[in-house]
Amino acid sequence: MLGLNTSAAQINGLAEQFESAEPREILSWANRTFGETLAIVTSFQTTGIVTLHMMGEIAPATQVLTLDTGFLFPETVDLVNALEERFELNLQRIRPRQTPRQQARDYGDRLWERNPDRCCHIRKTIPLREALSAYSAWVTGLRRDQSANRANTPIISRDSRTGLIKIAPFANWSEDKIWAYLRAHDLPYNPLHDIGYPSIGCWTCTKAVNQDADSRSGRWSQRDKTECGIHIEQITKPARVGAHA
Ligand code: SF4
Fold first, then answer.
1. What is the spatial order of strands in the sheet that 90-94 belongs to?
2. Which of 90, 115, 138, 238 has the most CB atoms around it within 10 Å of its CB?
3. Which atom of ligand 1 is nearest to the CA of 219?
C-alpha cells in the first residue's frame, strides 16, 4: 500500500495520472487505496462541503476531521452541526490542548495579534498533526485559484509536515465550479460567504473583503500572513507595537 515508503517518483506519477481526473474518480481511488486509514480534513468551507457530499456517495463512513480552535464563528459551528446531521458524518472535532483561557494565561492575551504563527501552531498545526498520526493519507480542499501560494498545488503529494500522502481532488476546480456544484445539489453553506467573507477561519483573524479581492485576503488581513501553516509554512513578521490583527 502507498504510505511512508512510497517514492517521490511514484507520487509524482500519481499526481500526473490524476491531473485531468474528476474529483469523484480521485476520491474513489483514495477510498480503495487507503480505506480506514484515509481522513478528510475540512473547515466546512465550500470545497469541503462538495468533498463531503461526493464522498458521502462513495464511502460515507470515511473519517472526517475538523479543527475547533475555540475561535470559530457561531455561523461555522452551526454549519458543522447541521452538516454532521444531514450527511451523517463520521466527524471528529480536533481541539488544541489548551483552551483560549489557558492560552491567554500562558502566552498573554490576544496572542493572535502579537504572534499569529505561534497561535496557529498551538491551535491548528500541532493538534492536526497529532490527529493525523493515525492515518496514511488525507484529503484537503486546497484549490489552485485560491491564492498565489496555492497556484501549484499538486493533486497528490507527500505532506512534508506529517509524511502522509496528501490528496487535493479539487486542486484544478475554479470557485465558480464549486458554487455551481453547491447550487445544483442544493447544499447549505456558511452564510458569512453572502456578506463578504470568501474564506472563513477564526473570527479573531478573518475580515470581510471587497467583492474583487483575492479570496484569502480577508485572513490575517493586516499582516503578511496568508496561511495558517497546515499546508504551507509561513514566517510572519512580528507585529509592530500597537498593531492589530
Ligand atoms: S487563525 Fe488566528 S486565532 Fe485562529 S489559530 Fe490562527 S492566529 Fe490563532
1. 90-94, 63-67, 38-41, 137-139, 165-167, 156-158
2. 138
3. 1
CATH code of the domain in which 95 resides: 3.40.50.620
Residue 211 maps to a domain: no
Q: How many Å apart are CA 146 and CA 144, to the nearest integer? A: 6
Structural domain of residue 173, as residue ranges? 8-190
Number of separate domains in the chain: 1
CB of 156 sitting under 6 A from ligand 1 = no
Q: Does residue 89 fall inside a structural domain? A: yes
Local structure of 93: helix, strand or coil:
strand
Evaluated on CA atoms 98, 102, 105, 109, the torsion sign reads positive
Nearest ligand 1 atom, CA 201: 1
For residue range 125-171, list pLDDT tens digits in order.
999 999 999 999 999 999 999 888 899 999 999 998 899 999 999 99
Task: Write down the pTM of the prediction.
Answer: 0.91
C-alpha cell at position 60: 460515507
Grouping H, G, I as helix, E, B as strand and the rest as coil, residue 202 is: strand
Please identify every stretch of the chain with a pLDDT value under 50, giving residue numbers as ranges. Answer: 238-245
Does the Cβ of 69 fall within 6 Å of ligand 1? yes
Q: Report pLDDT digits (tens) over 203-222.
A: 999 988 877 777 767 776 76
Dist. CA 100 → ligand 1 center (Å): 11
From the candidates 119, 202, 205, 228, give the one annotated as an active-site residue: 228
pLDDT for res 245: 27
Q: Between 23-34 and 46-58, two packed helices, what is the crossing angle to 10 degrees?
A: 60
